[in-house]
Design a protein that fits this description.
This protein is of the alpha/beta class and about 400 residues long. It is built from 17 helices and nine strands. β7 (about 265-270) and β8 (about 275-280) form a beta hairpin. α2 packs across α9 and α5 runs parallel beside α7. The chain starts with 13 loop residues before the first helix and ends in a 10-residue tail after the last helix.
């Protein structure tokens, strides 16, 4: 749907995109008297955000569409900086016109007067591709409003939607307190619709093929396809598109081609900010509703593997250190949680005995929802999941402990 078979590896040109029906949906919407009808179409399609939070796209659009303002904005957020996920980079670099068309469609539906494609500073290829797509579309008379490409700093938090707005404004790329939500007061205090670049590419497909065609793919509550990034341990690594309802076993064995050597997969981490899924559950369909029962989610699709020789404690510390390093520093509970996670897990690795699981659980419960963004919950999910699902690994690392874990 989003990733067509192509003979060239370079960015898809305007001519190539139009040859497969690109901008047909935009032309039809510009010819209608009421472009807000697209919001109903997106709702019927069941499209949810692909940035990881899975928020219903139409609900977000309605907030901005209902706002009264002379100026409104629409932002395609490609601020991807999560280790293991390359899907936004790949999509913008190779299929920028699909992202741009989706952004333009959303802008017309919500009444936007300015569009922005937001990337990260180290995304050289995607930035060049996005700028070229905007130039081509402008020269072809396809832009109903101006679109600008802006880049934020190379930090994880800079990809959060309100941090992206701050970066576009020239402010530090740190999350804002909500409410108000961007649809009410976003860029420069004006109503703003922010969606992940993959979400907008799906919008372009829906506008061209219809809501029913999109909703026919996937599961009852998880519609369409999603982009996943498979790791280098598999025969076919990289970005792939799969329909919701695909199982992780199918993803690893059929799409990924299996592990390169004779190691077995003990578990997968669907994305760094999610819980682990054990091998015994690999036949679970990939969907928001099915994975919620397993205390995880599809996330942004950046797959990591736990193999037979993986040091699970070391992997969990690596993840915890990432969140400690990448938290922006403005929320004391987040600073405390991410730093203490690393400290407690380090004590486990040093063999300082039991007590770590209770400390981690209480710390996560105390800090829950006390930050200006969801990083607190994102940092806690893989840590608590690892301690619960790999209890024997952690107990073996911690050892009996002469002091009962008091030094942890």
């Amino acid at each position: 749907m989003l990733l067509p078979s192509r003979t060239s590896e370079g960015p898809e040109t305007l001519a190539e995109y139009q040859a497969r029906g690109g901008y047909e949906g935009l032309r039809r919407l510009r010819d209608t008297d009421d472009p807000t009808g697209l919001i109903d179409e997106v709702e019927t399609a069941g499209l949810r955000g692909r940035g990881g939070a899975a928020f219903p796209t139409a609900r977000k659009w309605r907030l901005a569409a209902a706002a009264t303002s002379a100026q409104k904005h629409v932002v395609a957020n490609g601020g991807e900086h999560e280790p293991g996920s390359d899907k936004d980079r790949h999509l913008v670099e190779h299929h920028a016109h699909a992202v741009l068309e989706g952004l333009l469609l959303a802008g017309l539906a919500t009444g936007a007067t300015k569009g922005w494609i937001y990337l990260i500073e180290d995304m050289t290829g995607p930035r060049q591709s996005a700028e070229r797509a905007v130039q081509e579309a402008e020269a072809a008379g396809l832009l109903p409003f101006p679109v600008e490409v802006r880049c934020g700093p190379t930090t994880y938090v800079a990809g959060e939607e309100t941090a992206a707005l701050n970066a576009i404004e020239g402010q530090p790329a740190k999350p804002r307190k909500k409410p108000p939500f961007p649809g009410e007061a976003g860029l420069f205090g004006e109503p703003t619709t922010v969606n992940n670049v993959e979400t907008f590419a799906h919008v372009a497909w829906i506008a061209r093929h219809g809501a029913d065609a999109f909703a026919a793919v996937g599961t009852a509550e998880s519609k369409g396809t999603l982009l996943v990034t498979l790791p280098t341990e598999l025969q076919n690594p990289g970005v792939h598109e799969v329909p919701f309802g695909t199982t992780y076993r199918e993803l690893l064995d059929e799409v990924g081609g299996g592990v390169r050597d004779d190691r077995e997969v003990r578990a997968v981490l669907p994305a760094m900010s999610c819980g682990f899924l054990l091998a015994e559950h690999f036949d679970t369909p990939i969907a928001y509703e099915t994975l919620a029962d397993k205390n995880t989610s599809p996330g942004c699709g950046g797959i990591r593997l736990v193999l037979t020789d993986t040091d699970v404690v070391a992997l969990t510390i690596e993840i915890a250190e990432f969140f400690m390093r990448e938290q922006c520093g403005q929320c004391p509970p987040c600073r405390m949680e991410t730093n203490q996670f690393v400290h407690i897990l380090g004590a486990v690795q040093a063999g300082k005995g039991p007590g770590y699981d209770d400390k981690l659980t209480k710390l996560a419960a105390f800090t829950r929802k006390k930050g200006q963004c969801s990083l607190i919950e994102m940092a806690a999910a893989p840590v608590l999941s690892a301690v619960a699902l790999f209890a024997e690994d952690f107990a073996a690392a911690a050892g009996p402990g002469a002091n009962g874990g008091d030094d942890a």
